[in-house]
Amino acid sequence: MKNSNRSPYTLLSGLLFCFFYTWSSAFSLISLWLSQKIGLRGADTGLLFSAIALTALCAQPLYGFIQDKLGLRKNLLWAIGFLLLLSGPFFIFVFAPLLQANIFAGAVAGGLYVGATFFAGIGALESYTERVSRILGFEFGKARMWGSLGWAAATFFSGMLFNINPNLNFWMGSCSALVFLLLLWRLREVKTDALSQLEYGKPGNLRFSDATDLFRLPRFWALIVFVTGVSVYNVYDQQFPVYFSSLFSDVRNGNEMYGFLNSFQVFLEAGGMFLAPFVVNKIGAKNGLLLSGLIMALRVFGSGLAADAVTISCMKLLHAVELPILLIAMFKYITTRFDPRLSATLYLVGFQFITQVCASVFSPLAGKGYDTMGFADTYMIMGALVLSLTLISAFLLTGDKSRTPYSMDFKKGENL
């Protein structure tokens, strides 16, 4: 990496670290907080996650198009940074009282804040980082690795802090957000001339019709089929801490052990982010997506079959292999099969948006399944869904050797 490129790489890595630290502090143990401190049942928690997903799916297309129009300007990232700063006061003084007073009012407020701040915000930050990485010549995965380390650093202490006072986690999130804003202030914007040379035109010339034309492309819908399957990983993770802690005779011990497990998983995930580009470059973007889907199916099926904490911990750790390959392959797929000027829109709509659409549908169903069938049987159904759609995607996704110039793609609306 050239010396002139080190500063943006370092600052973007720091932004990802702080974003994920705040997100993990506020949200990694949210299902335990809702269950043990607020007293919500599985179905009520599913309703809340559905509200979060609905808000995120509304914000993500908007964030994506705005960021593509902004190019490498930081306006949207500033807005996200200030939302992160409010995480501590929001969870303690707004969200908790609303949930105790009225579950629906709490779900709406929580959905609006969490969906717009974390689930939509991360897509904007990741797509911004990926765009800079292509211009300056460093691997996105090496910067995204620091996001995983930020999550791991927060979760390492989250279980212990939760047992002392859950509010400590929320305040730690706000402190990390303050560092995020300081780093963002230090980050200089990359010149848009370099971006326009790389991406076939200036981002400011993008029209709304350029984004909507994506829906005319058959291979865009092929990508949606794949994402529908892998979107299950979000639903699986939502109430997993509740199931994991229930496998221990002492729930407080389970809470702490989950914090350690999650931290270890994300440390491994960080290593995976460093190695994933080599794997995906070797096997291709399409095969990388399919590999991540198969690993995910194995993880969910294995969780349904696991009968003890050790076995299910091993299944959870597979996430450290699956997610890095999925993210790196997804970015490489969308920037080589579609117009790269729309990379943020494609990532936030084609991946993040569809993930939240599916989560808004699957979360209440999963919550109901946990209450009626139990976690194990519900995981088996989830695993079958992931496996089926991954196998279908093997025939639908575009291979690495079949490509058409982007200008022809958007003029003719043809499939690659």
UniProtKB/TrEMBL annotation:
The UniProt entry, under CDD domains, shows: MFS_LacY
Matching entries from InterPro entries are given as: LacY/RafB_perm_fam (IPR000576), MFS_trans_sf (IPR036259)
User: GO MF terms on file?
Assistant: lactose binding; lactose:proton symporter activity
Primary location recorded for the protein, binned into one broad class? membrane
Which cellular components does GO assign to this protein? plasma membrane
Keyword line: Cell inner membrane, Cell membrane, Membrane, Plasmid, Transmembrane, Transmembrane helix, Transport
The UniProt record lists the keyword Transport:
yes
Membrane topology per the entry is: Multi-pass membrane protein
Against Pfam families, the record matches this protein to: LacY_symp
| Subcellular location(s) per record | Cell inner membrane
Q: Could you confirm whether the keyword Transmembrane appears in this record?
A: yes
Gene3D superfamilies attached to this UniProt entry: MFS general substrate transporter like domains
Membrane spanning residue stretches? 12-34, 46-64, 76-97, 103-125, 146-164, 170-187, 217-236, 256-276, 288-311, 317-334, 346-367, 379-398
Q: What is this protein called?
A: MFS transporter
Species of origin reads Rahnella sikkimica
